[in-house]
Amino acid sequence: MNNHYKSRRRGWRRSWSFVAATTGATIGLGNLWKFSYLAGENGGAAFVLAYLICIVVVAMPVMIAEVVLGSRGRSNPVSTMQDVSLEAGASSSWQLIGWLGCIAGLLVLSYYSVIAGWSFAYVGKLLGGEFVAASAQLSGDMFNNLLAAPALLMQWQAFFLLSILLVVALGVRKGISVAARLLIPLLLVMLIALAIYSSQVGDFKAAAEFLFQPDFSALNQQALLDALGHAFFTLSIGVGAMMAYGAYVPDQRSITGMVSTVVLMDTLVSVLAGLAIFPLVFSLNMAPAMGPGLMFVAMPYGFGNMIYGNYFGALFFVMVSLAAITSGVALLEPATVWLAQQFRWWRPVAAVVMVLVVWLLGLATIFSFNIWQDIDLFGMSVFSFLDFVTANLMLPVGGFLTAIFVGWVMRKEVLRDELYVESRQIFSLWHWLLRYIAAPGVLVVFLWSLSPWLKNLFIE
Ligand code: PFF
Fold first, then answer.
1. In ligand 1, which atom is closest to the CA atom of 327?
2. Rounded to the nearest 5°, which phi and psi values hold at 380?
3. Domains in the chain, number
4. pLDDT tens sequence across 277-299
5. Distances (CA, A) of 343 to 336, 339, 340, 356, 392
6. Which of 167, 204, 373, 423 has its CA 20 to 30 A from that of 44?
7. Residue 181 confidence (pLDDT) above 90
8. Which of 33, 63, 114, 236 to mutate to test the pocket of ligand 1 (most atoms within 8 A of CB)?
9. How many Å lie between the centroid of ligand 1 and the Cα of residue 235?
10. Which domain holds residue 341?
11. 339 alpha carbon to ligand 1 midpoint, in Å?
12. CATH number of the domain encompassing residue 9
């Protein structure tokens, strides 16, 4: 009997609820904070182009595959992988994908919560008028002062973690999709308004050239690996989150259609954020490659020098914080559900345990900006190292294994059973991309990007 005749437990009934919740999980600090500083560090347009190609031919097919797995398994990522590998007659070792995902999710959340804390802190700073008529220098100093205060960073990180704890513990799935439905249009409108504002006061021409006129000499190994890793990061794949959300996918709806909508919105938000940030960066003569502080220095300066800027600025950071909450929930969810189901724990208890683990891990990131700032791991700070290992290594590896499993190990009839609304052409295109482009693509980028590093390792 076809699986889609089975009763669907606790699923969302409408496409929009799934799309809203999933968009909430994908749009976050990755679009607003990370995309701009990565583009800045990697020379702009060539990186943006590589990132877009990675999204379309690698990350999107893998995202669909993850949702399909979730929809088939209808459980936490570990149990889902156990069930679907059993059904495929494959080794139970494939549950590694679920494990890897849960661990990567917690590691990402450990630093994600610190950056989200910055955003919480900035709401108060803007409302309090701290940036009124600020110079770029002052804006930079304020950011550095925040980084130099571990106690303050811990307080804001804890505040963020408590917010997502509340959502995950209560299991307010409905709440997330309602909030996301309001948040996303508001965020889009605000980003469009900000992009227009900064194109008027800033150097729009330089920003547009930087973002859209590729200089391929900037596309080195590091840039390509960053582009691939960020495609996974921004779409929240490789951490089991899309499996967890896929478990609630509505019946009789096109998964590829819903995923495409999510990807489109996610990309739009990143590009708009770039258009809001870079005109200011160029008119201020800031270095686009200044790193993680880019958004937190450029935007407050912009707001500080605009009429009613305190209020718009505070609203902007409220939205960044809300976007971070809906993403943070997706990072915490897979591990929490696994813990609750595995040990039959009450969900809130499982959520508290996981948050405590994340909070402790997060201290490493907090200290890397101050008391541990001299610690060097393979030429990176502790924070950069964590980000590199998770976003650039663990997420693509998780995605690669997912592509192999769904593309090569699962039976086509089972996949067709989950994607039965799609036309034959769409289904075949997706399956082909997964098999012949996504999986080998990750491998090629990996080998090429890591080759100098591996060479050094063996020669030394
Ligand atoms: N996609 C989120 C962002 O761009 O901010 C980050 C993220 C959320 C990654 C959830 C992974 C995840 F499971």
1. 8
2. -125, 160
3. 1
4. 999 999 888 889 988 999 999 99
5. 11, 6, 6, 17, 32
6. 373
7. no
8. 236
9. 6
10. 3-459
11. 20
12. 1.20.1740.10
